[in-house]
Specification:
Blueprint: H1 2-5, H2 8-23, H3 29-55, H4 63-75, H5 82-98, H6 108-120, H7 137-158, H8 162-180, H9 184-191, H10 194-203, H11 214-238, H12 246-257
Helix pairs in contact: 2-4, 2-7, 3-4, 3-5, 5-6, 6-12, 7-10, 8-9, 8-11, 11-12
């Protein structure tokens, strides 16, 4: 057991499950656990099937697929039907297994969510990355930030992705001031919002699809922040109807650009 708990992917699985348990009441326990069963179960199923098709072996340690399934659970639109979730899970694992050159090119969770928008115009809701409200909210919200801190320990301390995370958060805040005249106080509030931290600490520095070298991490974080802000500004100007989630698009473009420059 100790051997497995020392693996960063397993640590993230445990932390994300705690995240899910902490936030499940936001949806209602029955709905939340149904979503969990579908997202994790289907993601693991498709990973095992696609791995067998690719390598002719039965993959018995699908920790990465469980992480992807948990991420989908925490941010997918809860109104998604089972077949929409199935396509998103299949898209995520197909990207992981087949759209690769020695390693993944695109973040699997982001890829699956992009397929959800392409086929169903379904965007992530980020439902779990939300603060609680009500009489007991303070206790839950403190616990939420503790869980986010644990994610930071793995992604920053164990995986060494400081450059990408810090650059993204700082530059996105500065660009918000420039383009939207946001006050420093509102920028700080945005920077420490659970959704931003969840994205910046977990999805942005995903080990297989983000740079390893420090300078390239900085450039990667800067590109994703700049691209996300550019897409928001363009969308605001032209008022596109039901655009995709720009955090997802910016991340996938960053994955593609830095695939060869890790």
């Amino acid at each position: 057991m100790k051997k497995y708990l020392s693996i960063p992917k397993v640590q993230i699985v445990v932390i994300l499950f705690l995240f899910f348990l902490l936030q499940a009441s936001l949806l209602g326990i029955q709905i939340a656990f149904s979503l969990f069963a579908l997202c994790v179960g289907l993601t693991v199923f498709f990973d095992i099937v696609f791995t067998y098709l690719r390598r002719k072996v039965v993959f018995d340690k699908p920790f990465a697929a469980i992480v992807t399934g948990l991420i989908l659970t925490l941010i997918i639109d809860p109104s998604a039907t089972w077949y929409q979730i199935a396509l998103i899970a299949a898209g995520a694992m197909a990207t992981k297994n087949f759209l690769r050159v020695s390693r993944h090119i695109f973040n699997p969770a982001a890829s699956g969510l992009f397929f959800g928008w392409v086929f169903f115009k379904l965007n992530p809701s980020w439902w779990a990355a939300t603060l609680h409200r009500g009489d007991t909210a303070q206790i839950f919200n403190i616990a939420l930030y503790i869980v986010l801190f644990l994610i930071a320990l793995v992604s920053l301390r164990r995986l060494g992705k400081y450059g990408a995370v810090v650059t993204y958060v700082v530059l996105y805040g500065l660009l918000s001031i420039v383009f939207f005249s946001s006050s420093p106080a509102s920028v700080l509030q945005t920077a420490i919002a659970p959704g931003v931290l969840f994205y910046a600490l977990l999805m942005l520095p995903e080990p297989m699809t983000s740079p390893v070298k420090k300078l390239r991490q900085v450039l990667y974080g800067a590109f994703v922040a700049g691209m996300q802000m550019l897409l928001i500004v363009v969308s605001t100007k032209f008022a596109f109807a039901n655009p995709p989630d720009f955090t997802i698009i910016a991340l996938l473009l960053g994955n593609l650009l830095f695939f060869k420059y890790r």
